[in-house]
Design a protein that fits this description.
288 residues; mainly alpha; 13 helices
Length: 288
C-alpha cells in the first residue's frame, strides 16, 4: 500500500524529472565566476566577427533599395508612415539633429560595454546568461542583414527623407561618406541599435536596485528609437525587427541553459543581491 505522503510527492517528482534543463550538458551550466581576460577575449573576438560579417555581406544596392521601398510601402499600409514628419522636424532644428547624430554614432558602442562591465562586476552570477543573449541577438542580426539587405530611409531620396549627417556635416555616423566606404550601408533590417539598446534597458531594469536607475534603463531604448527615426537611419519596422531578435536571443539562451537570462545557474551563490530584511529577527537582535 502506498503511503499518502508518497502519493502527494509523486506529481512533484514527475514534474521535476520532466523539467526542461537546457540543451547544454549540466557540467557546462554549473556556476563559475567569469574571468575578466577570458571575457574580454570573447567580446573582442565577437566584435571582430560582427564587424567582419557585417561588412562582408554583399553590397546589393538594387535589392536593398527595393527592400527599403517595400518597407516604406508596408508602413504606409499600416499607417506607420509618420516618421517622415519626425525626420523633417529634427532636420529643422540643427541642435537637435546634431545631438541625435552624435547619439547614434557613439552611445551604441559605449552603453552596451558599460552595462556588460556592470553585470560582470556587480551581477557576476547573472553575467553569462546576459552575455549569451546579447551574442545570440547580434548573430541573428547579422543573419537578417544577409537574408534581407535593406536601405535606410535616408538613402531613399524619392521619399524626401533628410540625411541629417549630410545636411549638418556631423562627424562619426555611418552615414558620413568617409565612414560609409568602410561599412555596409544596407544593414538596416533588423536594427541592432534598437536590439542592443533594448537588451541594455532590460538588463538595467531587471538588475538595478534603485527605481530611478530602472527608469533610466527603460528610457534608453525609447530615446534610441526616437534617434534612429529622427535621423532617418531606420524605419519603424526595422525597430520592430530589432525587438524581435532580442526576444529570439532570450529564447536561444533559455534553450541552451533551461533558465532565464537573468536567473542564476542552479548552484550559483546569491552574489550581488541585497539581503532580505526579516523584521522579527531584526527586532530580536535589537532587544536587550
Amino acid at each position: 500500500m502506498v503511503a499518502p505522503s508518497e502519493v502527494r510527492q509523486a506529481p512533484e517528482q514527475r514534474a521535476e524529472r520532466w523539467r526542461f534543463t537546457g540543451l547544454l550538458p549540466r557540467r557546462m551550466l554549473r556556476w563559475r565566476r567569469p574571468v575578466w581576460w577570458q571575457e574580454i577575449a570573447i567580446i573582442a573576438l565577437g566584435y571582430w566577427i560582427y564587424t567582419l560579417g557585417r561588412n562582408a555581406i554583399p553590397d546589393q544596392a538594387s535589392i536593398a533599395l527595393r527592400h527599403g521601398r517595400s518597407i516604406e510601402h508596408l508602413q504606409h499600409i499600416l499607417h506607420l508612415n509618420w516618421e517622415l514628419s519626425i525626420n523633417h522636424f529634427v532636420a529643422g532644428h540643427e541642435w537637435l539633429a546634431q545631438t541625435m547624430d552624435y547619439y547614434y554614432a557613439t552611445l551604441h558602442f559605449i552603453v552596451t560595454p558599460v552595462v556588460m562591465a556592470w553585470l560582470f562586476v556587480r551581477r557576476s552570477h547573472l553575467y553569462r546568461g546576459a552575455r549569451t543573449t546579447l551574442v545570440a541577438t547580434t548573430l541573428l542580426g547579422l543573419l537578417g542583414f544577409y537574408l534581407y539587405p535593406t536601405a535606410p530611409p535616408r538613402l531613399l531620396t524619392q521619399y524626401h527623407y533628410i540625411d541629417t549627417v549630410l545636411k549638418f556635416h556631423t562627424w562619426g555616423s555611418l552615414a558620413d561618406p568617409d565612414i560609409a566606404k568602410h561599412s555596409n550601408q544596407f544593414a538596416a533590417m533588423p536594427s541592432l541599435h534598437i536590439a542592443w539598446a533594448l537588451w541594455c534597458g532590460i538588463a538595467i531594469f531587471v538588475n538595478a536596485r534603485h527605481m530611478w536607475v530602472r527608469v533610466v534603463g527603460l528610457c534608453y531604448p525609447l530615446c534610441t528609437f526616437a534617434v534612429i527615426v529622427g535621423t532617418a537611419n531606420h524605419f519603424v519596422l526595422d525597430a520592430v525587427g530589432g525587438a524581435l531578435i532580442v526576444a529570439l536571443g532570450f529564447g536561444v539562451q533559455y534553450a541552451l541553459s533551461g533558465h532565464g537570462a537573468f536567473s542564476p545557474p542552479f548552484d550559483a551563490p546569491d552574489l550581488g543581491l541585497p539581503q532580505p530584511r526579516v523584521p522579527l529577527v531584526d527586532a530580536d537582535t535589537q532587544s536587550p
